[in-house]
Amino acid sequence: MPNNNAALVRIDKTDRRILEELQTDGALTNQELADKVGLSPSPCLRRVRALEEAGVIIRKVTILDHKKLGLSLTAIILIGMDRHTPERFSAFEEQVAEYPEVQECYLITGQDADYMLKVVVPDMDHYHHFLLNRITRIQGVSGVHSSFVLRRVIDNTALPLGYLS
């Protein structure tokens, strides 16, 4: 079993501040970031590159407003599998990774399901089509339970960095 502590990267206060700022606005220029964290541009860029090389910064993305793009329906889907084998799970995960509607996919425990998906679509008709023509056609899916998001109360992408020393 892997030791999670072996993969930890040492983060000092300046690195933590850099990460906090980038989580808030990944489009900051190096100069803007350096100003915010109290560094000159060259050391700031070196630190950001070191965090990228260490795998702490995985990628930078732009977050879009789903409603302004007509993606008004968010569904949480609990999925049960007929067999609990590595091959069955792997095949399921490979298939759902191809669906752009799937925003998140978790292998879970503590429920009467094996997977939890977060799916975004325009409306119920599109969801119905997605469910019947994609999800239920994946080999091994034995049960599906859907819940629909009424309102996003907290919609945060930033990790809590207060735990870092």
Report on this structure.
The protein has about 160 residues and is α+β, with helices and mostly antiparallel strands. The chain contains 5 helices and 4 strands. A 4-stranded antiparallel sheet has the order 2-3-1-4.
Topology of this protein?
Elements: H1 13-24, H2 30-37, H3 41-53, E1 73-81, H4 86-96, E2 102-107, E3 115-121, H5 124-133, E4 141-148
Antiparallel strand pairs: 1-3, 1-4, 2-3
Helix pairs in contact: 1-2, 2-3
Strand adjacency order, main sheet: 2-3-1-4
> What shape does the CA trace take?
elongated
- Unreliable sequence segments: none
CATH superfamily of the largest domain: Lrp/AsnC effector binding domain/regulation of amino acid metabolism (RAM) domain
CATH C-level name of the largest domain: Alpha Beta
CATH topology descriptor of the largest domain: Alpha-Beta Plaits
Helix content: 25-40%
The overall strand count is 4
Order of SSEs: HHHEHEEHE
Q: How many angstroms does the end-to-end distance come to?
A: 25 Å
Radius of gyration equals 20 Å
Structural domain tally:
2
Quaternary state, please?
A: single chain
Architecture of the largest domain, according to CATH?
2-Layer Sandwich
Query: In percent, how much strand structure appears in the residues?
Result: 15-25%
Which structural class do the helices and strands define? Answer: alpha+beta
Total helices: the number is: 5
Task: Round the mean pLDDT to the nearest integer and report it.
Answer: 94
The largest sheet, given as strand count, sense and whether it forms a barrel, is: 4 strands, antiparallel
